[in-house]
Amino acid sequence: MNEGVEWAVHSCLNLAWLGDERAVPAAKLAGFYELPAAYLNKQLQALARAGILTSTSGPRGGFRLARPPEKITLMDVVAAIEGEEEAFRCTEIRHRGGSDSGVRSKTPCEIHTSMRKAELAWRRELASQTIADIASSVEGHSSAAPERVRRWFDDTRT
Amino acid sequence: MNEGVEWAVHSCLNLAWLGDERAVPAAKLAGFYELPAAYLNKQLQALARAGILTSTSGPRGGFRLARPPEKITLMDVVAAIEGEEEAFRCTEIRHRGGSDSGVRSKTPCEIHTSMRKAELAWRRELASQTIADIASSVEGHSSAAPERVRRWFDDTRT
DNA sequence: GGTCCGGTACTCGGATATACGATGTCCGAGTGCTATGGG
DNA sequence: CCCATAGCACTCGGACATCGTATATCCGAGTACCGGACC
């Protein structure tokens, strides 16, 4: 799995805590974790294309959440970065070679079916957890976190 | 996900149908689907290292299932090829940069926790399905499949 | 005829190339702010 | 003092390098079979 997913979720969390009053530039989001700014920007673009963030150009521009954190699931974020296609790609090798029965059977590939079943369980679990859920979990462990984030983004000039 | 997983599962299915009386060379398993023999061999080696297959060198050598198909889960095969580590690797970026609170908090990374939860659902689903299950599903759709496989592996000289 | 032995062909196993996608970087287009000059 | 306007700095967006891993290939080590020679 892409490392960008981790960056994206963390950034969404921060954006949730910062509220959507102001837009936050990619460079600043990157600075918070000392990530390569240009590359994080690429991931944020993907989130914007997926409708999870809105982007604004020019001074005072940047990114902000396109909808409330309760409406953004982990599945949304992962799909935006990793793509919608399933991880297991069935290439139908059962129809290759002289082994094939000749009939392009309409029966589905059972292996594909089984893998998909597992992947759906994964997707369902991801879809059941929102950015808001994670945010509140973090706050449960350290209630100061949101305030500390806001402070950092306000103070730091970089 | 690795393409080798698809090859490995298909090969395990064929080995299940062929029984473990005789060993089957990688070249023959590859020929069945016209796959690159040397590369499939690599995947089979991984299965052997994981204890799913046993390998025999020399003439009349090859691979065979190390235990009955009911005892081999999809999880076993996927883990053998893809590795045991989780797909989502948490690099703890929350502890990078001036953003860190300084305390290497003992609280787990919530994002990591959420991703792991989804991944466990995936693993659980994979672990619940065995090679035998898939074999019997295929037989349900086309009862001639096992016999056709045995025939091909008996007849073909390549 | 039976048994031992050397040669041979076969198979796995790992070391070695190659291609493609993830990772990382850079520059151009667009946009809002700001300062300056005129009314 | 207020407004128009030109310049500028900032930001995204996508085009361009670089690196690592999955993919693919090749050759060496070991082993069982087969044929022949010897007892």
Description:
The structure is a homodimer. Chain A is mainly α. The first copy, chain A, has a domain at about 5-85 and about 130-155: Winged helix-like DNA-binding domain superfamily/Winged helix DNA-binding domain (Arc Repressor Mutant, subunit A), CATH 1.10.10. Chain A has helices at about 5-20, 25-35, 35-50, 75-80, 110-125, 130-140, 145-155, and strands spanning about 55, 60-65. In chain A, strands 1-2 form a two-stranded antiparallel ribbon. In chain A, helix 1 (about 5-20) crosses helix 3 (about 35-50), helix 1 (about 5-20) packs across helix 4 and helix 2 packs across helix 3. Chain A starts with a helix and ends with a helix. At the A-B interface, helix 1, helix 2, helix 5, helix 6 and helix 7 of A face helix 1, helix 2, helix 5, helix 6 and helix 7 of B. Chain A binds a DNA duplex (39 and 39 nucleotides) through helix 3.
